């Protein structure tokens, strides 16, 4: 249990730091760092589930999983747009602007929702409860 608390504390610190960086400067790279931090938080949690109060632990895990999925959707659109742009340059595809605008609209909507989810996460009771479980000072 001691090792689990140490690892999860480190991962939580990294996650909160990457979220703060993302909020200070919202760009593709900072979003990617949040996604990586969420993944680094989530997977060790899967290993240590039996070490803690299951209900509180899984409540936090579900949020982390959901945030990781949301960040992945945004990241996928970024990558899709970059790949389409490379393709369009090769073939002078005329609909590039229309597709890019639609992708931007979709991405902005997803990103707005993600920012709200992150705000709810950092101010939510689940984070505080999880911090207590691992003896982390928030």
Fold blueprint:
Elements: H1 2-24, H2 28-47, H3 54-91, H4 96-123, H5 125-133
Helix pairs in contact: 1-2, 2-3, 3-4, 3-5
Describe the structure.
This protein is mainly α. The protein is built from five helices and no strands. It has helices at residues 2-24, 28-47, 54-91, 96-123, 125-133. Helix 2 (28-47) runs antiparallel to helix 3 (54-91) and helix 3 (54-91) runs antiparallel to helix 4. It is elongated and about 60 Å long. The mean pLDDT is 89.
What distinguishing features does this structure have?
single chain, 138 residues, mainly alpha, 5 helices, 86% helix
Q: Short summary of the structure?
A:
By secondary structure, the protein is an all-alpha fold.
Which percent bin holds the helix content? over 70%
Q: Name the beta content range.
A: under 5%
Structural class: mainly alpha
Chain-averaged pLDDT: 89
The CA-CA distance between the termini, in Å, is 20 Å
The count of helical stretches stands at: 5
Number of E-state strands: 0
- The best one-word shape is elongated
